[in-house]
Amino acid sequence: MARCGNKLLLAAAVLFLGISGAAAEDAQVNTIQDIFRHLRTCWKPPPPAKARPIDITVVVSFNRTGNILGHPRITYESAEASDNDRLQYRIAVMEALQRCTPMPFTDAMAGAAAGRPFAIQFRNRKTSPPTQERPA
User: Fold this and answer.
1) d(CA 116, CA 119)
2) Which structural domain, as residue segments, surrounds residue 88?
3) Strands across the sheet with 56-62, in order?
4) Which residue has the higher pLDDT, 37 or 14?
5) Rounded CA separation 77/57 (Å)
6) How far apart are CA 82 and CA 14, in angstroms?
7) 132 domain-assigned
8) 60 CB-near residues (< 8 Å, 6+ apart)
9) How far apart are CA 1 and CA 62, in angstroms?
10) How many domains are there within the chain?
11) Of 5-14, 20-29, 81-90, 115-124, which gets the smallest average pLDDT?
12) pLDDT (tens digit, 9 = 90+) per residue, 60-81?
């Protein structure tokens, strides 16, 4: 199973690196809450026909210019997710990050956010039932 998970992450990373997209048009990001708000504007979950709704968390850091620093890392996925669900949501998360970067930081926020990891939760359920966390 770990081998399949590595393939899924690799596929999502390849897709992420291969996408050319424009940053989301939005107001400047001046607070941590603005980072999350900005990312929500870029989030497009897979349609229900492609994957069942799951929750997924990614840890990502930005540099001063608002570009992604290093590689985003999936740290949580709903335990009941199938391999296909995980793949579709990993792709959707990477596409959202691509659409939202470079993050339009103000000068003050650029200095405050640079290099710091942010755990971004993408929830696609109306209410999340209690589940055991499953490492990605």
Assistant:
1) 10
2) 2-122
3) 68-77, 56-62, 117-122
4) 37
5) 7
6) 20
7) no
8) 68, 72, 73, 97, 117, 118, 120
9) 31
10) 1
11) 5-14
12) 999 999 999 999 999 999 999 9
